[in-house]
Amino acid sequence: MARFRSSEAGLSRAKNCLARYTCPIMIDIRELKTNPDPYRQAAAAKGIGIDSIDRIIKLDNRRIELLGTVEALRAQLNVKGKPSAQELETLQTAKAKLADLDVKLKDIEAELHQESLLVPNLIAPNTPEGGEDNNREDRSWGEHKSYEFEIKDHLTIAEANGWVDFERGAKVAGSKFYYLRGSLVRLELAVTQLVYDLVAKHGLEPMLVPHMVNSRVLEASGYQPRGEEQQSYKIENDDLTLIGTAEIPLTGFYGDEILPLEKLPAAFIGLSPAYRREAGAYGKYSKGLFRVHQFNKLEMYVFCTPETSAEWHQKLVKIEEDICQALELPYRLVRIAAADMGAPAYEKYDVEYWSPIEQTYRELMSCSNVTDFQSRRLNIRYRADDGAVKFVHTLNGTAAAFSRLPIALLENHQQADGSVRLPKLLAHYYGSEVL
């Protein structure tokens, strides 16, 4: 008579296994199930909703239950010797049940995958509650100048000097496209080189990146467009989307790799255009270079161990402040409140420049610690000293966005004759003290 192997070992493995998924799960589901309250609190604080968390727990419990049954059926099918007619009938029944359960498992795991995409990152301690109005100023730098002449906005200055042409940009591409000309192009190149030299001291490697990414990388980075006001430009008939920041292709650089510990930290500064539909953007803050559809951007990005990500976050913020000080731009550093942070960020700061036109601070740079939110989605890991394989942490920070930065420079450093005085360090790269 054929002997059936005991299913107890398989059933035990099934009940303890939380990592055997056909579809990738984008969160630490073991941690979520053990301690779900921080996930519920983060979702509620970010205004994303907590329904997915409860659904994930129920789905995974059902998955484990089915997996136990599957393991038991597989054990029944693992026989020695020739089965009898009765045993053969039992085996055929078990095989049919197994096929049906395999389909159900795949459906549950697919649903788990989709639900896990909706769960935001956790929130760092001391994060302000509420939305944009609750963002907290941590420190400021620089004096607010007083001008003995009537100051002009950046668009008036740029058009008077022939440095920007929105009319011809609209003629060839539509509203909010533009040409940069002459001195403003040279200014962008000078700032780029200045920034490269500043970040080189911290070991950031320059990188040119693809301007398009596939849907997996877009989704994993947290930039998958949702809702009616899609902000990305899709490439028709291809699984490609134009990037809104170099952060997105930089996120995918080490996708599905296990990095040796000695490769970390891996720190980059990516240069790319940023393509943004800016659907729904309107009002006074869309004038000129505010909220354009295309501009160049320098983005810092770091892969590191979990133990060093908080330190790297402060280092990237310091680099942003160093850039502002080198450009002699008055600014303040703001800790971003939970509901103003978005799903990927664990902790986020903004650097806001002083606008002499509006007599208020306006966003110039941002810097986020994303912890393992992106690395889990792209399976980016490292091998620790003890041989364990763990997920890296990722961070991103703006070094220079050539939409907001020219606004800040032109408006803060304008002169009575319509020219623009350049800060000493920038003048060195530009080749002149006056723009």
Characterize the largest beta sheet: strand count, sense, and whether it forms a barrel: 8 strands, mixed
Based on DSSP secondary structure assignment, what is the total number of beta strands? 18
Number of helices in the DSSP assignment: 14
Which bin fits the share of residues in helices?
A: 25-40%
Oligomer: single chain
What value does the Rg take, in angstroms? Answer: 27 Å
Describe what you observe in this structure.
The chain has helices at residues 8-16, 29-34, 37-45, 51-77, 85-117, 154-160, 166-173, 182-200, 215-221, 247-251, 309-326, 373-378, 404-412, 424-430; strands spanning 3-4, 79-80, 136-141, 164-165, 179-180, 205-208, 212-213, 234-235, 240-242, 258-260, 266-275, 294-304, 331-335, 347-355, 360-371, 381-383, 389-391, 393-401. It is of the alpha+beta class and 435 residues long. The strands form five sheets. An eight-stranded mixed β-sheet has the order 3-13-14-15-18-12-11-6. Helix 4 runs antiparallel to helix 5 and helix 6 (154-160) packs across helix 13. The model is unreliable at 1-20 (pLDDT under 50).
